[in-house]
Amino acid sequence: VLKIYDNYQLDTRTNEYISPAQRNEESLLVDTFLSTNVLSAAMRFLADKGFVRKDYYDYKDTLRRMWFNLYSRGEGKIGSSGFEHVFLTETKLGTEISGLHNWIYFNAEEVKKRADYLGYIKKVDLGDKAAIVKFHAKFNNIDKPVTSMFIGTSPELEMALYTVCFFARPDQNCPVSLGGTKFNIVTHKFRYRGYDLVGSAYPEI
Q1: Tally of structural domains, the chain
Q2: Is 101 a catalytic residue?
Q3: Catalytic residue among 101, 112, 129, 182
Q4: Where is the EndoU domain (predicted)?
């Protein structure tokens, strides 16, 4: 997942250009995630419920479309995608941070001194090795009073949970249990050019 971080312009006012090579990186990422038990099981669950067809290529097309299709959040610029918003972050008007819901990206940016953890608001443990944290942060010296993310989980698990909730309980609380702990996931749909795309997705505690 680290390999595709540099594919994106974080400013939603800047048009994204994704080259064929970068599209191949996205395709490889989806293939890699679908090769895991957790995401393949999630897609089979959605197929059993009638949300998608029970076909690998349909799984892949669905994931690529909902997570990686580009769309506009305003000003006529095609500058956003669900993956960028959730697994990286975005800046609005140069003064607001949105997204920032993935611990691997946050940690990588913290090492580069671009992200700054300013203290947690709430923390819930998910068994021995993972947690959900709601906290105050800064990114590129722009304040984000509250964000929430999983800590210690794999990106394919996060994508699996978000994808199931996106179909099963969009735009509302989606109850989930991990490691014996109950919490909610919130996903928002973004309708663009006839498709429902990921607007946002995060754990809520």
Answers
A1: 1
A2: yes
A3: 101
A4: 1-205
